[in-house]
């Protein structure tokens, strides 16, 4: 049963190009399936989350991270009486605009664009992918997703202001997004904070002692697990502690959001949209633990010397390729040259779109072809 404050698919504001109803899938289920069948979604498999393939084949990449966000989002949406299909579609699409090389790639692309007075933002890029770049249907460009999915792509992680982004005016920028979209940023964090501890430990970049010393909530669960399973191998105790940590974050997000909805007297989707702030949130205590985990990961993993070389590589590859194509637009694939000439797009934007779509492997190939050995 959907709660009154959930998004009800029959009240969707619909698609840009009206389509007939599918006989046995509703509009949000169709959007979820369109995302899964998109080329940009498949490319997530070869995009770095935190660790490149150099480390191991069983670490998260951006696709498996996305699937973890989707699983956690479905659980939370279901428990809150929200629209699970919409939450799932939003989770699956949430990282589709990410360039190669994780955050280093995003930063490098943004830096290159800023030299031309422009910028790169992965949410805005995702909207261009689903609205234009994906070509699957004869009747229209893009995936023709429902309003609520496009709105969620833009609004799940931050607020955009109409003054700076007049092109986004249709997305009700003065209102909060539905709870299904509000959840995604928080489930994204639950997924990566815990997964990065796991992969960091497996990569031997974080020791058990460091994690226990720097993440007290993990340490508490680890002690609990060690009492129940004293003879279990460390890694299994680690897994059990991490599982409890995920459950604590998920459970807290569910109960605290329920409390906030009740306290605010929220009954309808309109109440959610018009509330002064986002209602999906961790409690202050768990929010503080979450912050502590994040700070630990920044200090000990994301900025660790072990990952620094790959970050430098990412910046060099993106930066040099961008500069190469600015000087040699004739070396771009033909359709991108046409876009720069005819479609009213600036050359930096066309190059940025091209690079942002690339997988880690493909951008290295391009680098070797145009700029010499990586
Ligand atoms: Mg993510």
Automatic annotation (TrEMBL):
Domain HD: residue ranges: 62-193
Cross-referenced InterPro entries: dGTPase (IPR006261), dGTPase-like (IPR050135), dNTPase_2 (IPR023023), HD/PDEase_dom (IPR003607), HD_domain (IPR006674), PHydrolase_assoc_dom (IPR026875)
SMART domains linked to this entry: HDc
One Gene Ontology term from the biological process aspect of the record: dGTP catabolic process
Pfam families linked: HD (PF01966), HD_assoc (PF13286)
CDD domains registered for this protein in UniProt: HDc
Keyword Cytoplasm annotated: no
Keywords: Hydrolase
Family designation: Belongs to the dGTPase family. Type 2 subfamily.
GO molecular function term, any single one: dGTPase activity
Gene source species: Candidatus Sulfotelmatobacter kueseliae
Lineage: superkingdom: Bacteria
Protein name according to UniProt: Deoxyguanosinetriphosphate triphosphohydrolase-like protein
